[in-house]
Design goal:
Layout lengths: L22 H10 L14 E2 L11 H7 L10 H13 L4 E5 L2 H12 L5 E4 L4 H9 L3 E4 L20 H11 L6 E5 L12 H13 L3 E5 L3 H11 L8 H10 L3 E5 L10 E5 L2 H14 L10 H14 L2 H20 L12 E5 H4 L9 H13 L1 E2 L1 E3 L1 H4 L15 E5 L7 H16 L7 E5 L10 E4 L14
Helix pairs in contact: 1-14, 2-11, 3-11, 4-5, 4-10, 8-9, 12-16, 14-16
The protein binds ligand F0G.
Length: 471
């Protein structure tokens, strides 16, 4: 059969120029940013792969939707459009909009977690875990062991380990577990999916013990695509059908709409229980805004409701994940150690292996992200020891099994030529990896330290030593 490639299911109508900087400009910029890519000014970044959060390109229909914003304080027509889209595609009954995902996490955690409770989850996410802890809970990781091994090719590395979940129930008692925090396409594991069989089983086990299940639906559409690709029996299901089925097993979700939903800001909490929804509505007015806008403008809700419809179109999701695979395969072909299988929203490079000359105490992932920026102007994000923070009781650094940098691909923004340039930059630095220096803190924030921490090189003052001057 003749080869038939896919291409992006859109054409470009408007462009945003990119600025190319010199290496010495980038050295200065990263030094001023305390070697933390979060603190760079975006004007100094060439290809921005910091995150897929809020960085999507909206469609012409979504931009048109902005003009249809009904900016009424109460009862905006756009809220009802959003509610309708979520009810149709996610299937939940009660919808409470929030300014972004963590707004929903805050409300859910405060409503359901009591001091001394345990919250199992398939790997932590930074903001999710922090809100669980602020509410008095302790997060317990119940993801399958395969998720911690970057080389393991298991197709559903996001799965819940049912034995770990059962062991927690036996140890602390179901009455001390308010809910399972179930994430689809697990971000910190490398964008790895859960299977529907596992979702069904994990939810079944929880419900048997009267434990609720709340989905972190942030990348559930991407998870649905992997189910269609990999899980027997789902090859002929639509993405929309699979998404509905995922949600149907759970009691509600928190959502960062800045990812799957193709918007630049927004989120929501969805629940099926009417009483819990009332409590959540009482809380949202305190922390976010009235329950029909939750911190969002009417136009934001309109763009979100249109984005939800576009997100479940097969051609969209195939091109989105296809682009991530394209970059991943280029890196694999060049021998770069990345998390496998290739995930849904980005490529995760194994920084501990890439920079094997640096001890974990010198934050190899933080160093690699800074060095990649100096080499190429490509901005990546640390997802390792700095992100994992400190243990609250011992005060020591947590050393997660995965020490990664994430090249996160915004949706519908970059072309394959940008992916080629990125791959070449990573390969270039791999060839000179011994020139990368370790880092130590000069400023360490107490909460979510990765966002604002500052560092300095452990030797010299450059993150990427000059090949000519290094011994
Ligand atoms: N859950 C997951 C799985 C996320 O990836 C994020 C955000 C959130 C919750 C919080 O949502 O940012 O809207 O408040 N992830 C971004 C990222 C920040 O870059 O991975 P938010």
């Amino acid at each position: 059969m003749k080869k038939r490639s896919w291409a992006e299911p859109y054409k470009i109508k408007m462009v945003e120029p990119l600025r190319v900087t010199t290496r010495s400009e980038r050295e200065q910029a990263i030094t001023e940013a305390g070697f933390n890519t979060f603190l760079l000014h975006s004007k100094d970044v060439y290809i921005d792969l910091l995150t897929d959060s809020g960085t999507s390109a909206m469609s012409d229909r979504q931009w048109a939707g902005l003009m249809m914003g009904d900016e009424a304080y109460a009862g905006s027509v756009n809220f009802y459009h959003l509610q309708e889209a979520i009810q149709k595609f996610y299937g939940y009954q009660h919808i409470i909009p929030t300014h972004q995902g963590r707004g929903a996490e805050h409300i859910l955690s405060q409503l359901l977690i009591h001091k001394g409770d345990y919250v199992p989850g398939n790997m932590y996410f930074t903001t999710t875990k922090l809100h669980q802890e602020l509410a008095g809970g302790t997060f317990v990781d119940v993801i399958v062991d395969e998720a911690h091994d970057p080389d393991n090719e298991f197709p559903f590395k996001g799965n819940v380990d049912l034995a770990k979940l059962q062991a927690l129930i036996d140890r602390v008692g179901a009455e001390h577990i308010p809910y399972l925090s179930l994430e689809t396409n697990v971000n910190m594991a490398g964008g790895q999916p859960c299977s529907l069989a596992n979702i069904r089983a994990a939810c079944g086990l929880c419900h048997e013990h009267n434990i609720k299940v709340f989905l972190d639906a942030t990348r559930a559409v991407e998870n649905a695509y992997f189910i269609k690709q990999r899980e027997a029996g789902y090859e002929n299901h639509s993405i929309a059908d699979i998404l509905r089925e995922i949600c149907s097993h759970t009691d509600g979700c928190t959502m960062s709409a800045k990812k799957d939903c193709l918007v630049n800001i927004g989120g929501w909490l969805a629940v099926n229980d009417a009483e819990l929804a009332d409590h959540a509505r009482n809380m949202v007015v305190v922390y976010e805004g009235l329950h029909t806008y939750g911190g969002l403008a009417g136009r934001d809700m309109e763009a979100m409701s249109l984005g939800i419809r576009e997100s479940v179109e097969y051609d969209h999701i195939r091109a989105r994940i296809g682009q991530v695979e394209y970059l991943g395969n280029a890196l694999i072909d060049a021998g770069i150690p990345i998390v496998r299988p290739i995930g849904g929203h980005g490529i995760f490079i194994d920084a501990a292996r890439f920079l094997s000359h640096l001890p974990r105490e010198e934050f190899p992932a933080q160093a690699l992200a800074a060095a990649l920026y100096v080499e190429s102007g490509v901005r990546a994000m640390e997802r390792g020891t700095v992100s994992a923070g400190r243990d609250h009781t011992t005060g020591k650094n947590n050393f997660p099994k995965l020490e990664l940098i994430r090249l996160t691909i915004p949706r519908r923004v970059y072309t394959q030529a940008h992916m080629d340039v990125t791959a070449e930059a990573v390969v270039g630095i791999y060839e000179d990896r011994n020139l990368v220096t370790g880092l130590r803190f000069t400023y360490e924030p107490k909460q979510l330290r990765f966002f604002q921490a500052r560092f300095e090189p452990t030797t010299g003052n450059q993150i990427l030593r000059d090949p000519d001057t290094s011994a």
